Amino acid sequence: MSYVGRFAPTPSGPLHFGSLVSALASYLDARANKGRWLVRIEDLDPPRTAPGSIDAILSCLHTFGLHWDGDVMLQSERQSAYLNALEILQSQKLIYACSCSRAQFQSNPQYLCTCLAHPPADKITAMRIALPQQEITVGDVILGPQTQQLALDVGDFVVQRKDRLFAYQLAVVVDDAAQGITHIVRGSDLYDQTPRQVWLQQCLGFPQPVYAHIPIIINNHGQKLSKQNLAQPLNLAHAPSLLSEALERLGQATPCNFRQAPVTEQLAWAVEQWDISAVPPRMQDPMAFV
Ligand code: GLU
Q1: How many CB atoms lie within 10 A of CB 71?
Q2: Which of 13, 99, 252, 284 has its CA 20 to 30 A from that of 290?
Q3: What is the CA(263)–ligand 1 centre distance, in A?
Q4: Dist CA 131 CA 196 (whole Å)
Q5: What is the rounded average pLDDT of the residues 188-205?
Q6: What pLDDT was estimated at residue 226?
Q7: Closest approach atom of ligand 1 to CA 186
Q8: CA distance 62 to 256
Q9: Which of 63, 51, 38 is closest to 12 using CA atoms?
């Protein structure tokens, strides 16, 4: 089978150590399987795109030797593909206009939205997908299978926001299919969102990729490293030692004196030795220096 993997960062700031670990895991899994590795910039939400961050992310990947295949896909240029998918869902009567706020849903798990039965009068509303009372089970190479009853566990979710921006769930599924992605290796913070994406793939007639969710890196407060939690940008002057640290976090036993080896040497070795079964399901230690 031909393998196509991807790294899909949101350009809300420069890459941090957690994003390096995700990029590295998806790169190694693709290259070890003689596959292609693509980069997609998830700049779906223009106000969240930090100026200069797209160039910074791409040049950071090059510094770490993580060279991708083909052109970089930008979600900001994919509006017509998302609209097309929305229309397919609409033609199957799977989506409905909803004027309820996110706060209404979040404040009460039992909140009953009546917009499906009684369409709102407002012209500008979000669009939600109507979910069936049915279980969905999705396998995962690292974390094992999970089953969700989407209607109960998640509830009808938004595919297009009230401000007309398409939701991540819809865009990610449309783009993974358009790029022919066969394997998705990404952070475990997205593990419980995967059944939603598989459901959308089924509605849109797209193939289901193989999923592997790697442990997320946490800071000293037990929080996921993220731009919101002020994770430090990667210090490019320390690329070799950061790459070694990332390999160790992924359970790949690195040779002694590896930390100063050039990134190209480290990556060549890591592609040869890559063992996805050695990736720990959870990260034990916080990242001290971030
Ligand atoms: N854009 C998402 C992020 O930066 C990743 C989405 C995905 O890998 O499906 O966290």
Answers
A1: 8
A2: 252
A3: 24
A4: 10
A5: 97
A6: 77
A7: 8
A8: 25
A9: 51
Domain 4-75+175-278 CATH (choose: 3.40.50.620, 3.40.50.300, 3.30.1390.20, 3.40.50.720): 3.40.50.620
Give the closest residue (by CA) to ligand 1 atom 6: 8
Per-residue model confidence (pLDDT) at position 288: 61
- Report yes or no: 101 and 88 within 8 Å, Cβ to Cβ: no
Query: What's the whole-model pTM score?
Result: 0.94
pLDDT tens profile 97-120: 999 888 887 777 667 888 988 888
- Centre of ligand 1 from the C-alpha of residue 279, in Å: 19
Widest CA span in the chain: 67
Q: Is 40 in the pocket of ligand 1 (CB under 6 A)?
A: no
**Residue whose CB lies within 8 A of the most ligand 1 atoms, among 4, 10, 40, for a mutation test:** 10
**Is 46 within 8 Å of 76 (Cβ atoms)?**
yes
Distance separating alpha carbons of residues 275 and 281, to the nearest angstrom: 13
Which ligand 1 atom is the nearest neighbour of the CA of 176? 9
- Examine the pLDDT at 290 and tell me if it is beyond 60: no
Q: How far apart are CA 96 and CA 37, in angstroms?
A: 36
pLDDT greater at residue 123 or residue 17: 17
CATH of domain 79-169: 3.40.50.620
Distance from Cα 106 to the centre of ligand 1, integer Å:
22
Counted residue by residue, the chain has a size of: 290
pLDDT of 225 strictly over 90:
no
The rounded Å distance from CA 116 to ligand 1 centre is 30
Give pLDDT tens digits for 253-289. Answer: 888 888 999 999 999 999 999 999 999 998 766 676 5
Residue 130 scores a pLDDT above 80 = yes
Q: Which atom of ligand 1 is nearest to the CA of 42?
A: 1
Cβ(10) – ligand 1 distance below 6 Å: yes
